[in-house]
């Protein structure tokens, strides 16, 4: 029986994190975590490197993913744990999403330029290191050129917030499709940070009917009340309880690696459900 603490929600440079998978694993080891799950947005590109670093440092790395979906005009993020990341159906959908991310980033840069923000798509690509492009990469290009003084400022109505003047939507699947995709890749499907989108009891119940298996109860940006609220929902609906920091590097000091103390047994329960359809 393993003990210690885990962080089940971590981003790397494969998506919009600032640390490479190897650096993230080193950081986790420095924080004396027992295990971390790599949950990059819409990509599994960081998993193999993290697994390699994990076995060198004797830190368990769980292959995961975080899928952005759209549900009644709201973004709902679905985490997948213990996925078979080589699953061909999963990879097909991911590449469609990644292409759409690329095309919408081109359009957002065009819109920003027409609003007088002189950044280049080439620079955004460099900042994304040739991997999956997301809005933080555009924000970083704006920051470099002094148009904003903080990444958060890019996520406002003048720029690339969802209701922003330069925002462009991208291809998104539904939560039900994401859950199905994760489970068909032998993974465990969990709703991420439901408190951020104020997902309620009945919506979680509906997602459960679509195969949802767990709720991310512990998250850096959940209040104590939200933590309690989702804990009770998970208990009542017999869903798994997970937690993680949603670490992205040093972008946001509220999301510190390992700061959410999630005991190893919660990860064990998730692992027991992997591969069950
Ligand atoms: P995208 O997936 O390209 O639409 O970009 C979404 C990402 O932007 C999220 O995963 C966060 O990392 C980041 N993000 C969203 N809202 C904010 C915000 N208000 N401040 C900073 N970063 C944000
Ligand atoms: Mn992100
Ligand atoms: Mn998320
Ligand atoms: Mn995340």
Describe the structure in your own words.
The protein has nine helices and eight strands. With 277 residues, the chain is α/β, with parallel strands linked by helices. The protein has an eight-stranded mixed sheet. Helix 1 runs parallel beside helix 2 and helix 4 crosses helix 5. It is globular, with a radius of gyration of 18 Å. The two termini are 25 Å apart. The model has no long low-confidence stretch (mean pLDDT 95). The protein binds adenosine monophosphate and manganese (II) ion (MN) (3 copies). One manganese (II) ion (MN) binds next to loops.
Characteristics:
binds adenosine monophosphate; alpha/beta; about 280 residues; 8 strands; binds manganese (II) ion
Rg over CA atoms: 18 Å
Write the H/E string, N to C.
EHEHEEHHHHEHEHEEH
Helical percent range?
Answer: 25-40%
Structural class: alpha/beta
Q: What shape does the CA trace take?
A: globular
The end-to-end span amounts to 25 Å
Helix count from the secondary structure assignment: 9
Low-confidence stretches: none
What is the number of strand segments? 8
Mean pLDDT: 95
Bound molecules: adenosine monophosphate, manganese (II) ion
How are the strands of the largest sheet arranged? 7-6-5-4-3-2-1-8
Largest sheet: 8 strands, mixed
Proportion in β-strands? 15-25%
């Amino acid at each position: 029986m393993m003990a210690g603490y885990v962080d089940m929600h971590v981003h790397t440079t494969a998506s919009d994190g600032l640390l490479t998978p190897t650096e993230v694993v080193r950081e986790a080891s420095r924080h004396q975590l027992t295990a971390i799950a790599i949950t990059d947005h819409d990509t599994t590109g960081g998993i193999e490197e993290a697994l390699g670093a994990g076995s060198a440092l004797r830190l368990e790395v769980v292959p995961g993913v975080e899928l952005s979906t759209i549900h009644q005009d709201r973004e709902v993020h679905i985490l997948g744990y213990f996925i078979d990341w080589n699953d061909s159906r999963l990879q097909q959908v991911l590449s469609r999403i990644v292409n759409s991310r690329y095309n919408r980033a081109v359009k957002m840069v065009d819109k920003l330029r027409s609003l007088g923000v002189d950044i280049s798509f080439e620079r955004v690509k460099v900042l994304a290191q040739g991997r999956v492009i997301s809005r933080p990469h555009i924000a970083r290009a704006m920051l470099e050129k002094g148009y904003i003084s903080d990444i958060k400022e890019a996520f406002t109505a003048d720029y690339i917030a969802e209701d922003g003047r330069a925002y462009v939507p991208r291809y998104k699947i539904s939560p039900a499709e994401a859950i199905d995709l994760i489970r068909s890749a032998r993974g465990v499907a969990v709703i991420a940070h439901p408190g951020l989108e104020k997902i309620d009891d009945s919506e979680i119940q509906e997602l459960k009917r679509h195969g949802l298996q767990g709720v991310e109860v512990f998250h850096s940006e959940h209040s104590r009340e939200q933590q309690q609220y989702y804990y009770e929902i998970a208990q009542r609906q017999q869903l798994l309880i997970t937690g993680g920091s949603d670490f992205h590097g040093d972008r946001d000091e509220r999301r510190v690696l390992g700061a959410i103390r999630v005991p190893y047994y919660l990860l064990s329960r998730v692992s027991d459900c992997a591969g069950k359809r």
